[in-house]
From TrEMBL:
<dbReference type="GO" id="GO:0004930">
    <property type="term" value="F:G protein-coupled receptor activity"/>
</dbReference>
<dbReference type="Pfam" id="PF00001">
    <property type="entry name" value="7tm_1"/>
</dbReference>
<dbReference type="InterPro" id="IPR017452">
    <property type="entry name" value="GPCR_Rhodpsn_7TM"/>
</dbReference>
<keyword id="KW-0472">Membrane</keyword>
<feature type="transmembrane region" description="Helical">
    <location>
        <begin position="158"/>
        <end position="178"/>
    </location>
</feature>
<keyword id="KW-1133">Transmembrane helix</keyword>
<feature type="transmembrane region" description="Helical">
    <location>
        <begin position="110"/>
        <end position="132"/>
    </location>
</feature>
<feature type="transmembrane region" description="Helical">
    <location>
        <begin position="61"/>
        <end position="78"/>
    </location>
</feature>
<dbReference type="GO" id="GO:0016020">
    <property type="term" value="C:membrane"/>
</dbReference>
<dbReference type="InterPro" id="IPR000276">
    <property type="entry name" value="GPCR_Rhodpsn"/>
</dbReference>
<keyword id="KW-0812">Transmembrane</keyword>
<feature type="transmembrane region" description="Helical">
    <location>
        <begin position="190"/>
        <end position="211"/>
    </location>
</feature>
<protein>
    <recommendedName>
        <fullName>G-protein coupled receptors family 1 profile domain-containing protein</fullName>
    </recommendedName>
</protein>
<feature type="domain" description="G-protein coupled receptors family 1 profile">
    <location>
        <begin position="1"/>
        <end position="209"/>
    </location>
</feature>
Amino acid sequence: MNIITSRSFLWFNCRSIEYILRLLLATNDWLHACVTVERFLVVFLGVGFNKATSKKYAKRMIWVIVLVVAASILHDPIHRRLFDDIEEERTWCILRSTPQLEIYDRFINIFHFLIPFSLNFILAIGIIFYAAKQRSSIEKKFTFRQQLRKQFSRHKHLILSSILLVILAVPRLIISFLPNCMKSPKEYQLFLAGYFISFIPPILHFFIFVLTSEIYKKEFDILARQKWKAFRRRLNPNNE
C-alpha cells in the first residue's frame, strides 16, 4: 500500500475536505428551505406571484446562501493543523479549538440544521392551511375543515419530505457532536460510516421529493417515457 507523503497534499486535504463537505451539505439544506419559501409565496400571492422576479431573486439568494454558509464555517479550516506523530509514525489532521470555538461550532451546526428544516415544516403546514382557506372562501359548499382535509391529502408530500429530511440528517448532526480521533485501524469503520452517512440525504432527495408527490411522479413518468422514446429512435432511426 502506497503512503501519501506529500506535505502540501496532506495540508490541502486536511483543510479543505471537511470544509467543502460541510459547505455543500449546509447549502443544500438552505436551498431546500428556499424552495419551500417560494412554494408558500406562490400560494400566498396567487396571481400576484411574479415568476420572472422570483427567478431573479433566486439567483441572488444562491450566492448569498453560499457566501454566508462559507463564512460561518470558515473557522474550521483556519484552525486545522498537521501534526507529525513520531511515535506512531503517522501524520494527524487536528483541529485546535478553544472552548468558545467549540460552543460556536456546535451553535453553527444546530443553526444550519434546525432553521432550514423548521422552515420546511412550518411553511409546508402554512401552504396547506392557506390553500384550504382560499378554497373554502371560493367554494362555499365545502367547509374549511373539509378543504383542510382535501389540501392535506394533496400536499401531504411536503410534510412527509420535511420529516424524512430531518430523520436522515439527525445522524449527521449527532456525529458532529462526537469529537474523537481514529487511534487504530480498527476504528476506521465508525468514521467511514459517519462520512458516508452525510451523503445519504442528497442521494435520497429524488425519492423524497418526487416519489412522495403524485404531481411530480406523473411529470417524471412523462419525462421518462419521452426520453426513452428518443433513445429508441436514436438506436433504430430506420424504424421511424
